[in-house]
């Protein structure tokens, strides 16, 4: 459905996307995962035809972007992170308007509208003014606008960001449902969202595609031995010094501190929980809690990206 070959995008001399290649099959839901500044939005904007690439090739549904940009744009729907909405219009009117901008006839819009409203769970608010709706509804209006013209590929940039837990559950269901009629590429820096909604994951770091596959494939490839969360009374530096030399400890990530108790996550190449606990106690640190981090994808992600240096936030 989409073929991307050696795609690059520079902003001046800064390389935001560096020779990224991937392909996505029809009806797949693929997650684009990366820390802030990894290059997700830039890549998605190029694919959506909003900005030009500095190099590389993109083909959607067999149509080449360089030779037929309008042909590619017609096949794609795009939800930006902050979708522009016609806040003074009702949901249904705004979708009719967007359909018209997309070149649809009134008849085609009338045929398509009920299905789009149902797919995005907006039936109840079709006649409400968008400006009066909650953030979750507005995001779904953005998705409805992106799919009104029945694109073959829909690209969603951070559709979960800013939503409350109830809205997140609704959004997940909407994204999964899109797969019935199109291919979906969805970006997020929220690992659990990617793993819950996507068939496959592309991991981007500092503009480069550093891995792709299912969560299970990535876990197998990177031999993740698990992660544990520790809470202890003491200094982070002392904890780090006590355990970083243990064979099997791969990475130590500070999670925060309150009232003299620090939390750290330790990713391991093998199960060395007992050695870690013994080393901390031996160093005089008050070990107050130890639990499985239960997030395999997070272990993979930390393995693939440099958490300290990779992000901008
Ligand atoms: P975020 O989730 O924070 O938007 P992202 O993974 O989507 O992150 P991009 O927004 O694509 O990343 O940014 C990739 C890099 O390109 C970053 O270093 C960013 O500062 C830079 N960048 C993005 N847009 C511009 C721009 N218009 N001009 C210059 N640099 C830019």
How would you describe this protein?
The protein is α/β, with parallel strands linked by helices. The chain starts with a strand and ends with a helix. It is built from twelve helices and 14 strands. The strands form three sheets. A six-stranded mixed sheet has the order 6-7-8-3-9-10, with helices on both faces. Strands 2-1-4-5 form a four-stranded antiparallel sheet. A four-stranded antiparallel sheet has the order 12-13-11-14, sandwiched between helices. Helix 3 (91-101) crosses helix 4 (106-119). The radius of gyration is 22 Å and the shape is elongated. It has two domains: 2-220, P-loop containing nucleotide triphosphate hydrolases (Rossmann fold, 3-Layer(aba) Sandwich); 227-294, Alpha-Beta Plaits, CATH 3.30.70. Helices cover 35% and strands 30% of the residues. It has helices spanning 40-47, 69-74, 91-101, 106-119, 135-147, 165-178, 191-197, 215-221, 236-243, 273-282, 296-304, 307-310, and strands spanning 2-11, 14-24, 29-33, 55-60, 63-64, 76-79, 153-157, 183-188, 200-205, 208-213, 227-233, 249-258, 261-268, 286-292. Residues 307-313 have low confidence and may be disordered. The longest helix is centred in the middle third of the chain and has 14 residues, at 106-119. Adenosine-5'-triphosphate is lined by residues 11, 14, 16, 34, 36-42, 189. Residues 11, 14, 16, 34, 36-42, 189 line the site of adenosine-5'-triphosphate.
